[in-house]
Amino acid sequence: MTHRPRQLLCTAALAGAALVCGPALAQLPPADPSSVWTIQDENASVSSATVTDRYYTNGLRISWASPTDAAPDWLAGVGQKLWGNGRQRMVFDLTQQIYTPFDTKVAIPPPGDRPYAGVMMGTFGLISDTATSRSTFTLGLGMVGPAALGKQAQDFVHSVIGQKKDFGWDTQLNNEPMLQITSSRVWRLKTGTIGNLETEALPELTAGVGTVRVYALTGVTFRVGQGLDADFGVARVRPGLSGGDAFTRTRKFGWYFFAGGNGQAVAHDITLDGNIFQNSNSVKRIPYVGEAQFGFAVLAYGARLSYTQVVQTQEFRHQKGGLHQFGSLALSVRF
């Protein structure tokens, strides 16, 4: 496994640039007294893909977003210095991601195939909303390796659905603690109407630095529907274009279809490069990754249900099967 300090430092600088966009006066949305709970699952079986257990196999996430203006004064002050005036929310989530090789029927995956890896991370963050933008900063702590319970989670699901177990989990990445810092901003750009339908573009910049992944992402989502001012796009398990979990109720019923894409420059990914402080399996990472995504969201009765289909380019050399596909299903409920 090799490391590129200059790339890491450059991408860390991008993370800082994405975070500190400069305080500015902005129009504020109305205060929101409700919190938002979200459960989300990403899996190739929730898609049109015919092979389900390969590469990014599953991502399960549970999150909570506070009402607006609920952050302690000292934390709200930090957010105001970073982003200026905004409606702030605290966010917490717990995420587990599972990665497997292409060939899951052998005890020792062949050289060049993606390593088995489980990632478990708890994240604390702060969201700041204006009428036209959403800025997010998160700090995540977690584990990679057997302690992330990737094997146990996958074996349980396979036993429930009657699918055979994967054989190579004894070769997974070793236990290592992880730290991840991520910063992002999404802008809401209204692009007119089509009859009684609203249209918008949601350009996004994201940067992350840490032992899990060092990367920069830029992309845009286009959407059409009704009630678009309720959110900033659907949520994704990062990395990926994500409008976040928090949404407001601006009408009794809202909906939209969306499509977009992003490009990612990746300087480090522990699930591909292998353990940092120990020897482990690894593959040759591709430094540039692209994604296309499309789907829909429905907002009604204080809930938002969304589905996203993701098509992803190869992440490492000699990756088999062409473009990787998975589906992302999320339910968010206001309380």
UniProtKB/TrEMBL annotation:
Organism superkingdom: Bacteria
Keywords, sorted A to Z: Signal
Any Pfam family hit: LpxR
Leader peptide range in chain numbering: 1-26
InterPro entries: LpxR, Put_OMP_sf
Coiled coil (residue ranges): none
Name under which the protein is recorded: Lipid A deacylase LpxR family protein
Species for this entry: Limobrevibacterium gyesilva
